[in-house]
Amino acid sequence: MKPPAACSRPSVPTRHTGYVRQSVSRGYSLLELLVTMAVLAVLTGTAFLGYRSNRLQINNAQRLVMGTLRGARASAISKSVHFSVAFAAGDRVLVQRMAYNNGGWQVDPADVRTVPIPAPAYVSSTAVGTRVEFDSRGVAVNLSTPQQIELRDSFGVSKSVQAWPSGEIQ
Questions:
Q1: Do 96 and 84 form a contact (C-beta atoms < 8 A)?
Q2: Dist CA 46 CA 42 (whole Å)
């Protein structure tokens, strides 16, 4: 049997029907499009979760600084010694136990703890170099007005923590 004369495409013989035309693919099948869309959806979702978790780091940094200040205050009250929280650099906070020497409270170099601030958050340059010291009653001894510690992230979001002279942390 010969293929019909009107057919210009090559034909392949089959077992049951004789000759069948080969079709030339002119696009993508529905299955190919669905698989591609599924892969793109997974990649987009993964990228969005990473972006979202970086955005949440400013909230984590704010909670961390508040917890560090409150922990230092609680330690000062429970151990009846002064504790200091120093913002020495933008990426870390120092918690320092203080000892009474020569008529004044000085940092005990044997008991200094460094708390890193999660990236991309950082302590703003106006708060770097500040220090909040709590006495054995939990009162901030070096503050006459509320001290505002501002935290920022690389997305332009800022959060603040306030330490009040009474020792309250907000």
A1: yes
A2: 6
Q: What is the pLDDT of residue 45?
A: 81
pLDDT of residue 56: 81
Q: Which of 89, 87, 82 has its CA nearest to residue 106?
A: 82
pLDDT tens digits along 92-119:
999 999 999 999 999 999 999 999 998 8
The two structure tokens encoding residue 45:
């979702």
Single out the residue of 39, 36, 3, 40 nearest to residue 19, CA to CA: 3
Phi then psi for residue 162, to 5 deg, are -115, 135
Element (H, E) at 53: helix 30-79
CA angle 30, 33, 34 (to 5 degrees): 85
Q: What percent of the chain has pLDDT over 70?
A: 82
Side chain identity at 55, as an amino acid letter?
A: R
Domains defined for the chain, CATH in brackets: 30-163 (3.55.40)
User: What are the backbone angles phi and psi of residue 13, rounded to the nearest 5°?
Assistant: -70, 140
